[in-house]
Structures are given as C-alpha cells and as structure tokens.
Amino acid sequence: MSFTLAIVGRPNVGKSTLFNRLVGKRLALVDDQPGVTRDLREGEARLGELRFTVIDTAGLEEATDESLQGRMRKLTERAVEMADACLFMIDARAGVLPADEIFADILRRKSAQVILGANKAEGRAGEGGYVEAWSLGLGDPIALSAEHGEGMFDLLQVLRPLVEAKGAEAAIIEEAAPETDVDVNEDDEADTSVRMPTADRPMQIAVVGRPNAGKSTLINKLLGEDRLLTGPEAGITRDAISLPFDWEGMPVRIFDTAGMRKKAKVQEKLERLSVADGLRAVKFAEVVVVLLDAAIPFEQQDLRIADLAEREGRAVVVAVNKWDVEDHKQEKLKELKESFERLLPQLRGAPLVTVSAKTGRGLDRLREAVERAYTVWNRRVTTAQLNRWLTGMLESHPPPAPGGRRIRLRYATQVKTRPPGFVVMCSYPDKLPESYKRYLVNGLRDAFDMPGTPIRLHFRGQGDKNPYKDRKKSKPSRLRKHLGKPSPKE
C-alpha cells in the first residue's frame, strides 16, 4: 500500500494549489473564492525521491449538521481517518484563527501524524502568522508557499521518515502512468483484437449530464461507498473526480463531472472552470455515459452533451436515471426509444438503459452496455471484408453522376479504431453528396454490427488515370503537310 497524505485546513488556505504542485498537474480547480473544493481528490505525488498518494479535501467548516457544509466536513474527516498522515495548513497572512484552533484539536484526536504547514509565508506579510502557528501545539510549522514552490525541501525532510516507515514500496522512483492515459489514435493494422482493460490501463468512463441528474449518486452506488458528495442541491460537484475500481472483473477508472447547464446560464467563472474540467474528462474518456433524468429526459442540453461526446469520437451509452419513481414504465420506455431515434440520429443504435442510482437496479445492464460499446468502439474490419461489402453497396445503389460524370468508388480500407475510421478511394470525392455518405455509414453499421459508435468515413481522390491527359499535342510531320493529309489527331 502506498503512503497517503491528506491536506486539510480552512477554506482558501491553498490546499488545492499545493495538491496541484505535488502531483505536477493542474488537476484540482483553483480560485480566489473560498470553498471551491467539495469532493476528495486523489493523485500520485512526486516530491524529491518520494512517491506517495496525496488527497485534496474540502475546507473544514464548523458546521456539523446535514447541510452542504456539514456533509463536506464529514467527507474531510473521513479522509483524515483514511490517511497515514495529515498536512494541516493555515494561512500565514491571516494568522491563527479560532477555527484553526478548533480543527487542530480535532486533528490531535483523529490522526497520529499531523504536519503543520503555514502557507502563503513568502515575504514579510507571512512572518507573523508563521510565528503564531507554534501556539497550535502541533510541532514545528513548515513555512510554505504552494504558489511559488517555497518550503518543498522542508516538507520533503519531514515526510521522508514517515514514508520510509510505511514501506519501501511508497518510495520507488518510477514514472506513474498519467490518469488520462488514453491513446485515441492507437492503431495496429496487424492486430484485429480488441484491447481489453487491465489494472495498468483501465477502461476510462466519464459520466456526464445536466445538474442534479444523479451522477455522483450513481458512482457512489457502483463503488459501494459514499465516496462522492451528494445531496438535493443542484451543482454540488465541481471538479472532475476520477476513481479507479473493479466493476465485476473489469478494471475501470470512472470520472464524475460537474453538471453542464446551457452556456447562456453559466455566468460565474467557477462554473465555467467546472464545465471546462468536465469537457476535458469527456475528451480523455473512452466510454461516455450520458445520464438523463427520467422526469425530464432529452432536454436540449442533454442533446448537446450527447452530440459533443459523438463529435469527440467517444463510445456513448445513454442511461436514464431515477427509474424507480416512474409509474408507467412500459409507456415511458417506448416514448424514450422513439425520442432517442428521432433526436439523436447520429447515435442510431447506441445503448439506452434505465437505471436507479438510488436503489442500484439496472446497474448490471449498464455494465453490459458499457462493455459492448467499448468493444464496438475498438472493432476492426479486414480490407477484404470491406471491399466485398462496398461491392454489394454499389450494386444495390450506385453513386450519382453529377454533371454526367460517374463517381467511381474503387476500394475501401480501415485506417484506425477508437473510433472506427475508414477511407474510400474514389474519383471526384468533393462531388459525393452527403446523402450517399450517410448511406454508406449506415451500411457499415448494419453490415459489421457497429451500432451507436461514431464512424469516421473519409473519401480521397486517386487522380485521373488517363495517361494522355497532360501529354503535349504532337506536331504534324512534314510528309503529311506536303501530301495535305490530316494528322491522326486532327
């Protein structure tokens, strides 16, 4: 097991900034507004020769009820219990506040190893707060500047004996695979098998949808624990949190994303950052689960989100949540399927499953749909099969002849997977109408069992094969001129 360090403290003391510095990426959202972080975010930290797991937590609040702040505090306290050590951060420029003293007392009881860090200690403005930190009775404070990287060597010196005591495994100097290690251009002509997810390279799934559709509740049910913050309030999730788990034998890393509202309604900078973080998760995912609310499915924003996933070339599964409160299930399901085919023709045949994140019903069907969508997304068709298919399509419905010139489709080949991409060599590719392109794409779906997955079909010209096209006109011979006979080309 890796050594785990939880970063805790009041809101806006710089926890997420330090987290980003330790993991070497801008994974956590950072803003001047306090209370940006709400969920627990884990990352693989690098500090000198040390490698360990770091947890970014929500700012500690004094609320202990079932309010949003109270639930955030419970989640942070859970992280403290999970971690091997806690880095308790205060704002050196603000000094030690009464809330800091309360939380310091809580940490003494809950965690055996507490490291005290006085952040924002650069310059003279932080000297007073750094001196005050001694009064908390948590040992020698470390003067830090998460933004500028000051104090990292002192933090390394404190962490080294703790990490080494945990075990040599945590201190192995190896380059960890990035969390979003998705090679969307991975392609090997000789390999027709589907790359199955492994523990080192799990399947990456992003759950997206409008606010309050139940994304975090669904992921908590899949994990079997309350790992993500949930509640009746819309827009609780802000960061795109990624969590690894084993989904009935299938290694998975699942991304919980912030709810995406219409662009016109997104006014605050923080919400724009949250949505951008969610869009980034979609770009790096392999399978995107678009979660709808059964009470108001296929709203305009749902359609935009599903279309975005298709344009990004991701395998798409549409899941309708809150199915447990639906009274007329058969009539509703028929209506959903009709709306899906009518409103999202570009995803024709994509899986549509009904689930209940609250009760867990339908999650087995969701897993089957995700695995099938992933398999189709990785599918490869041999060139021989493609050209037999192309011959049949041309015989059934030949391409048009704009301006009297017949468009000839000579042969087809698959150039990539993830999603499947094909190239057809033809004459006059720019004159081929969109309707005929759709005819071929739909034919590919039906012939090779690729429902719902994005298909990229490109047409390339081979040039004119007429050997006399650019040949200069020959001059008539002197003998023909003398005899008055025309040349063969005259």
TrEMBL record:
Binding site for GTP 1: 9-16, 56-60, 119-122
Sequence ranges assigned to domain EngA-type G in this UniProt record: 3-167, 203-378
Stretches for region Disordered: 455-490
A GO term for molecular function: GTP binding
UniProt-annotated binding residues for GTP 2: 209-216, 256-260, 321-324
InterPro entries according to UniProt: G_ENGA (IPR031166), GTP-bd (IPR006073), GTPase_Der (IPR016484), KH_dom-like (IPR032859), KH_dom-like_a/b (IPR015946), P-loop_NTPase (IPR027417), Small_GTP-bd (IPR005225)
Pfam family, one: MMR_HSR1
Start-end of Basic residues biased regions: 470-484
GO biological process, alphabetically ordered: ribosome biogenesis
Alphabetically ordered keywords of this record: GTP-binding, Nucleotide-binding, Repeat, Ribosome biogenesis
UniProt superkingdom: Bacteria
Family under the similarity heading: Belongs to the TRAFAC class TrmE-Era-EngA-EngB-Septin-like GTPase superfamily. EngA (Der) GTPase family.
NCBIfam families, alphabetized: GTPase_EngA, small_GTP
Assembly: Associates with the 50S ribosomal subunit.
Summary of the function given for this chain in its UniProt record: GTPase that plays an essential role in the late steps of ribosome biogenesis.
Protein name: GTPase Der
Organism for this UniProt entry: Silicimonas algicola
The organism's taxonomic lineage, starting at the top: Bacteria, Pseudomonadati, Pseudomonadota, Alphaproteobacteria, Rhodobacterales
Gene behind this protein: der
